[in-house]
Each structure stands twice: as C-alpha cells, then as structure tokens.
Write a structure and sequence with these properties.
Blueprint (H helix, E strand, L loop, with lengths): L1 H27 L9 H35 L1 H24 L10 H6 L4 H35 L1
Length: 153
C-alpha cells in the first residue's frame, strides 16, 4: 500500500509541475496592449484545455472510487441503493405533479417562438417541484433532528 501512496504522490507532483509551467507560460505571454494576440490566446486555450482535462479526470476518478467502495462494502451498497430509490421516488412524484401548461406573462410569446413547449415546461416544473420537496425534507430534518436526539436521551 505504501508503494501506491508514493506513486500517487509522484503523479500529483507531476500534475502540479505541469500546471505551474502552464500558468507561468500564460503569465509570460500576457499582452495587455493587444487582446487578440495569437500567442496569448493560444496559451489561454491551452490552460483551459488543461483545466478541462483535470476536471474530467478528477470527476471520473471520483465516480470510479465511489463505485468501487460501494461494490466492496455491502452496507454502503445498501445505503446507496436506498438513496437512489428515494431520489427516484422524488423524481417520479415531481414528474407526476408537474404541469405542461406554459405560464402566461408579459413576453412569453418570445419564448414560445424560440421553441418553448409543453414538454420543456413539464421538465422545468418537475425540477422545481423536486427542489421544493427536497427543501421541505431538509427543513423538516433540520427541525426534527435535534428534537429526536433530545427525546432519545
């Protein structure tokens, strides 16, 4: 296990070195007089691509390690499946309660001509209702949680 820790440390330091080199190169090529300098824009694009790569790799690793942890620990798997079922239930309830009706307000014609339809409104309404349900559950847990702890003692 110690060898893996050393390898991860080396990889992290390599990522830091590459990031520092890219930032220093960007700073060296900043041209305050010309916003359209091709060299500066190239370094900006290179740094943005590097950030995208780091973000995608980090998100992918986070998902892979979460899946590995869930599959290796039966208790975590059970909790994860219960959470997914709960979120699925909230999504289903929200979708059933949602309305495809487009609200009438000043300027709605512009949105309708740009492609706003009933299905889009139903999805927006679903998201809002799911938000309201989750907010209500959070507030209820925030209020009821301490009361339950006091009663148990």
């Amino acid at each position: 296990m110690e060898k893996i820790g050393k390898k991860i440390t080396i990889v992290l330091w390599a990522l830091v070195v590459v990031s520092v080199i890219l930032i220093v190169s960007l700073m060296a090529n900043i041209n305050p007089d010309n916003d359209q300098d091709p060299a500066m824009l190239s370094w900006i694009n290179t740094n943005l691509i590097w950030v995208y790569i780091l973000g995608i790799v980090a998100a992918g690793l986070a998902v892979l390690f979460a899946i590995y942890h869930t599959l290796s620990d039966k208790k975590a798997a059970k909790g994860g499946l219960i959470s997914l079922a709960f979120l699925g239930g909230v999504a289903l309830i929200s979708y059933v309660m949602a309305s495809p009706e487009i609200p009438q307000f000043l300027g709605v014609d512009k949105f309708i001509t740009e492609g706003l339809d009933g299905q889009t409104m139903k999805l927006v309404d679903t998201g809002l209702i799911a938000l309201y349900i989750m907010l209500a559950i959070s507030i209820l847990a925030f209020i009821v949680g301490p009361i339950i702890r006091v009663v148990r003692k």
